[in-house]
TrEMBL record:
The UniProt record lists the keyword Oxidoreductase: yes
Protein name (Swiss-Prot/TrEMBL): Putative iron-sulfur binding domain protein
Leader sequence residues: none
Keywords: 4Fe-4S, Iron, Iron-sulfur, Membrane, Metal-binding, Oxidoreductase, Transmembrane, Transmembrane helix
Organism in which the protein naturally occurs: Desulfotignum balticum
Length: 687
């Protein structure tokens, strides 16, 4: 032999052409893969519609940054870096895998354009890619199989964990890296023995290492190893391709589509059914998600795309306090149900009511809709819309928690969850001294450029009404011409919508929209992030909406507002990001900018801040709902503030203020710590 025989020319036992096997393997592999994918697409075809073909340019950018750029992976540094290495290696080596399939039919095949310097550069890169991928697989296997991070654990009630599958897949990937490198190294070692000349390979790469190890091997051994490693790679490659859609590693295939079709607008809730207008809702026979096929095809794709990394549940505040909710298993249980109801062969099984089959009522009601799970997911899996849709279905079936029935009835009757008279909505403005100094316009009688939308908790909760007065004071001092709706204002409906009472929400939205548009105001300001989110994202056709922190930051920058030096410079302040101001609407810097404008104020940051802020527990109608939990979210948050060295927690949300004030008492930190609303702190320091 003067040169090694490639798989396309090799004959087993001198009579059977290896090229036949090279042809059979991809034909069978691709055919089986196509069949499996056809079965996996069946539930998506039968699912509810979903509109995801808008803003293609923006979707391409998300695809480049989130899927290709893997920007969310390093939020968990070690696991993230390992994943990036494996992912990048897969992308690089995919070209090599395709060419290897064809090499089995045509010796020496080179992809068009890879015959010159580009091929040399590619070979250099792919040799290092294979090396680093193998190292990453070894480290990941040790980490997953021996150290077992807590977020991968699966409670017994949810079934078995997926450690064995994860390690098995890492082994498959490692086999692909080794076999590809051996295939090339055996050829290089063969050539060295024949000519005595070294071909350049990437130093210290797997190919380099194997080539040096094989220099003393016989030519027959190298020939056999060359053919063996080729077919090992080919067989492993097509086995892996068909194995992916059978479990959690389906995300290797679906993730690119899942990220492309991801939700672009935070803070918004999907309509009850795409293609059905608000006016047509009465014509629907059923609301929300009750059985598997009621989910949209995108949400089905979510179930397929979960990597079971546990990041969502690790960041979920409901999971942290021991509520019966883990976002990870919302997805995994649904995927398992799809696999069960849509088997690879045989009949499709009829779906049951989901809250009786795989979910529990408490599990679905435990979510605060804070969005931490979605922010963390590296594959853009959605949870809030699924939770809301499941709640819509439960409400439609009359499965409403007892503690929520009273506030919902009050909202229907009085437009607020407290059941108080509409005419008392503006009573906060009647406090004698305040009224004398800061008279508030009633937009039913007077006109103004700006509407201050107060919302229910600030209007009716005696302990929170001070936020309304401080907001009015700030607007007045900032020279803003504003007024309120008074008795014409209804609850914004942010919580009502997210608790699945769709028709009640539609009624509240319609009444507020009519009242607001009738005033002719040019902008809306609110101090309640929940109202801000609803008016900005859920309503349509309204003037621009701003949060009071945005107004304050702007007026400080322009010099309209000036602040006195800190009244208590000995204290240390920390800002708590409300979920509906931060994660859902991206307002992080304005409140901090305003606080930092107070000379002498010492501000620190909690470890969980900005887009990783920890929910206080007040999202949805949680102020009225009492779930089973081991501790309060607010208590954990107070402890985080204490660990950061703060003794004053500043927030910009009335829901957060209520929960954090209560949590300070429950945590036994009265006298040590205090909670202030943003408006109160700013009002105290107005020059």
């Amino acid at each position: 032999m003067t040169s090694i025989i490639g798989p396309a020319s090799y004959q087993f036992f001198g009579i059977f052409p290896a090229a036949i096997l090279s042809f059979i393997l991809p034909v069978v592999g691709i055919g089986l893969f196509a069949y499996i994918m056809a079965r996996r697409l069946a539930p998506l075809v039968r699912a509810a519609p979903d509109y995801r073909m808008d803003r293609i340019g923006q979707r391409i950018i998300r695809l480049i940054t989130i899927w290709l750029g893997q920007i969310r992976q390093p939020r968990y540094m070690l696991a993230g870096v390992l994943h990036i290495v494996i992912f990048a290696g897969f992308l690089i080596l995919s070209i090599r895998s395709v060419s290897l399939v064809i090499i089995g039919l045509s010796d020496g095949f080179v992809l068009p354009g890879f015959g010159g310097w580009l091929g040399d550069v590619y070979n250099f890169l792919k040799d290092y890619a294979a090396t680093f991928v193998l190292i990453a697989c070894i480290v990941a296997g040790i980490r997953r199989g021996i150290f077992k991070p807590a977020r991968y654990a699966v409670p017994e009630k949810y079934g078995k964990d997926h450690t064995a599958e994860a390690v098995f897949v890492l082994g498959i990937i490692g086999t692909l890296m080794i076999s590809e490198s051996l295939f090339e190294a055996s050829e290089l070692a063969f050539a060295y023995q024949q000519t005595g000349e070294w071909h350049f390979v990437a130093p210290l790469s797997l190919v380099w290492l194997f080539t040096h190890m094989l220099t003393g091997a016989s030519l027959n051994f190298l020939q056999g190893l060359h053919i063996f490693s080729y077919f090992l790679h080919d067989l492993t490659f097509f086995f892996f391709l068909c194995f992916l859609p059978l479990g959690k590693h389906f995300h290797v295939i679906t993730s690119i589509f899942n990220v492309f079709f991801m939700r672009l607008d935070k803070g918004k809730i999907k309509p009850v059914r795409y293609g059905v207008s608000d006016e047509q809702l009465d014509d629907l026979e059923s609301f929300g998600v009750k059985k598997l096929e009621d989910f949209t095809w995108k949400h089905m794709l979510d179930f397929y795309s979960c990597a079971d990394c546990g990041r969502c549940s690790d960041q979920c505040p409901a999971n942290a306090v021991g509520r019966p909710l883990s976002p990870r298993f919302i997805t995994i249980k649904a995927r398992d149900l799809i696999f069960k109801n849509y088997p690879l062969s045989g009949e499709i099984y009829k779906s049951k009511m989901l809250v009786e089959d795989i979910y529990t009522e408490d599990e679905i009601w435990s979510c605060t809709t804070c969005g931490a799970c979605e922010e963390e997911c590296p594959l853009a899996i959605e949870y809030i819309n699924k939770i809301v849709d499941l709640r819509r279905g439960m409400v439609d079936e009359g499965l409403v928690p007892q503690s929520l029935q009273k506030p919902l009835k009050a909202l229907e009757k009085r437009g607020n969850p407290y059941g108080k008279m509409e005419k008392k909505r503006a009573d906060w403005a009647l406090e004698k001294e305040f009224k004398a100094e800061y008279p508030i316009k009633d937009l039913a009688k007077e006109s103004a450029d700006t509407l201050y939308f107060v919302d229910s908790i600030t209007s009716y909760d005696d302990n929170i009404q001070e936020i309304a007065r401080r907001t009015a004071m700030i607007l007045n001092r900032a020279g803003v011409d504003f007024g309120i709706l008074g008795k014409d204002e209804k609850d914004s409906g942010n919580e009502v919508l997210r608790f699945g009472e769709e028709m009640l929400y539609q009624d509240l939205k319609a009444q507020n929209t009519e009242a607001i548009l009738a005033t002719g105001v040019k902008q809306i300001v609110t101090a309640d992030p929940h109202a801000y989110n609803a008016l900005k994202n859920d309503y349509t056709g309204l003037p621009p909406v701003r949060h009071i922190s945005q107004v304050v930051a702007e007026k400080i920058t322009t010099g309209v507002l000036s602040l006195k030096p800190c009244l208590h410079p000995e204290k240390t302040y920390v800002y708590h990001d409300p979920c509906y101001l931060g994660r859902h609407n991206g307002i992080y810097e304005d409140p901090r900018q305003a606080l930092d404008a107070i000379d002498g104020l010492t501000r620190v940051e909690m470890e969980k801040s900005r887009d990783r802020s920890f929910c206080c527990g007040g999202g949805g109608l949680m102020l009225f709902y009492e779930p089973e939990e081991e501790t309060r979210m607010g208590v954990l948050r107070v402890n985080m503030a204490a660990e950061a060295g703060a003794n004053v927690i500043v927030t910009a949300c009335p829901f957060c203020l209520v929960n954090i004030q209560d949590a300070i008492k429950v945590a036994g930190k009265e006298g040590e710590m205090e909670a202030l609303d943003f408006t109160e702190l700013i009002a105290r320091h107005l020059a």
